[in-house]
Every structure is written in C-alpha cells, then in structure tokens.
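Preliminary data (for renewal application), uridine-5'-diphosphate complex.
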Amino acid sequence: MPGRPEMKIVSVVGARPQFIKAATVSRAIAQHNASAGDSIREVIVHTGQHFDENMSQVFFDELAIPPPHHNLGIAGLTHGAMTGRMLERIEQVLLDEGPDWVVVFGDTNSTLAAALAAAKLHIPVAHVEAGLRSFNMRMPEEINRIVADHVAKLLLCPTEEAVRNLANEGVRGQVCNVGDVMYDATLLYRERAAERVALTTWNVRERNYALCTIHRAENTDDPDRFHAIWKALCAISRSIPVVFPVHPRTRNLFPREMADAGTNGIAIVDPVSYLQMTRLEASAKAILTDSGGVQKEAFFHKVPCLTLRDETEWVETISLGWNVLCGADTERILAGWAAIPSRDRIDGSNPYGDGRAAHHALHRLLECQ
Ligand code: UDP
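Predicted structure:
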C-alpha cells in the first residue's frame, strides 16, 4: 500500500488555455514522482467552464493530462453566477480533499473561484502566470488575476515585467519569476506538431496564409469592433487565405458573417487541437489575434503578430518587434498587415524563461512548505 504522499496538490482548471498550462505542471509532477517515489499527489478539478470536446477533452488526450478527479460541470452562466457556483463546489472539494496547496492558472473565472475558495479555508494558493496586467479593469480577466494575485501565497510569474507589476501593487505573497509554462509547452510539442499535422488539412501552404482567432469579450460583445475586424480580414483574404478557428462564443454571436465566410477566402473552422494550432501558428505568414496565449506563441515561433486589442499584458512581444497593437480598427489592422516585419529582422532575445518553467514552479512549491 502506498503511504500518504508528502504533498497533496489540488490543481483547478476549466478553460482551454489552462489545460495547456496545467499539462506542463502535471508533467513536472510526474517526472518528480518518478525520481522521488510518488511523493506528490495531484488532484485535478475541472470546473467545466469549457466543455465541448474540441475545447476540453482533446487537450487532455493530446497533452496526456491525467483525467480530472472532480468534474463540476459548471458552464454557460453569467460571470457572477458561474463564479458563485464554482466557489461553492470548489470549497466542498477542498474540504473533502484537504490539500496542502491549491494551484490556479491564468485569469479565468475558474482561477478566481478556486483562489477565493482556498484562501477562505486558509489553504495556500500558488498562482501560475501571476503578475500579468493589462491595466484595463473592464476586462473580466484583469479582475480575476488581480484577486488571485492578492490572495496567493506563491506568485509564479512568467516574466520580469510581471514581477515588477506585483512589486508595484505590494502583494503579500512570495513572488518569483519561473518563466512561462506556455513556452515549455511550445518547446515540448512543436516538433511533434510539424511531424503529425499537415497543412493540407486546411488546404494552405507554408507561409502562405494568415491565422486568426477572436474571442475576447471586448470584441465579441461589441458589434462595431467585430465588424471593423471582419472588414480587415475580408480585405486580407483577397490576397491570401485566412484560417480562422472560431471560438464557440464568437460563432454564436455572428452567424451571418460566419455563414458568408466560405465565399471570401476566410476558412471558418471549429476550434483546433493544440498540435494543430501549434502547426498553424508556426507556419503562418502572420497571426491576427486577441488571444493572450496566441500572441505569445506567435513570438515563440517567430511569426509576426497583429493584436486586435488596445493593450496587451505581453508587452515584451511588442518591445521586441514581433507584435503590433492594432485595436479593432480596420485601417490600423491593414496598415499593420502591410508592414509586417520580415523574419530575419529581429533580435533573438527571449524573456519567457528557459523552457523549464513548470519544473521551477514545482521546485518553488516544494521549497515554500
Ligand atoms: N488554441 C488551440 N486551438 C484553437 C485556438 C487556440 O489549441 O483553436 C490554443 C493556443 O495555441 C493557446 C491557447 O489555446 O495555447 C490560447 O487559448 P485562448 O486563446 O482560448 O485563451 P487566452 O490565451 O486568450 O486566455
């Protein structure tokens, strides 16, 4: 019979980017256990925030994430209702499991609910991807990450900029820069994606298409912003194919444009798997996105990015010349497109760590008992 592990961790996930971040930490735990005799037990809680097969299960399968021990099935509600129900259910899970740590990732409602539930039970919280700020309090993600950071005991930052943001806010927890776990994931899966995923799936050729994703509330909830972006995409698609894996939120909101898309060179497709996305990103001529993760992955693959927002948390991608903020402004997007930087122009510095962020994070957690 195995004895009680030295440390029990509850990891809480719920949305697509969190599966990718959590996969790297679960992998680091498995590697630690292989050499240290199963001393860490990880209990995975899936809140259910994203539940479609192609927004959830495909990531567990492809990234070999252990199946969740608890699936709370909470989705499709307003922010308050969703967060409230998660808070209540996660609290019960934590009372039952009695973990030493709760690990939360990024900035979703699942992050907020888990961080609050744990903090109120005096269970230490570790926040992976702490310290990011857009300084835009209208973003639900900004509220979630600020609260999570202020109740966390261990703040695991992806960059020095994030460390500085936390210093400016005077958070109480222990702050360290471990690097970006999404960079770990890119390094781990990039080759596999190139081997296993063919661009012919989308009928496009290397460097001869643009990749687009849109799902931020500021763009999907505001028809004027969405239409301005759509106009720019239509113009771009007259010279080069645009592949657009559509987030469920975006598809539901704009049926007319989506239905017309096939006729104008924009390939509207369902959300793709992580390996497919990695391949699509790495081979694109340029990426247009309002996603945080996709902006950064564009940088990892050294593919120019036009960000369809007015600000970004990932300021290094801008200062190093790989990313341009275009807002939701047709003219700015098209000007950005006309001026996308060539690949050989830019310096090779990387502010996102050494590709072992998940290991460093786990190490910090073990030290911070
Ligand atoms: N992603 C994916 N399939 C898609 C779109 C995105 O696997 O169809 C991945 C992408 O590679 C990145 C992550 O999802 O790792 C980003 O998630 P998302 O854009 O949903 O959230 P954000 O990063 O903006 O919080």
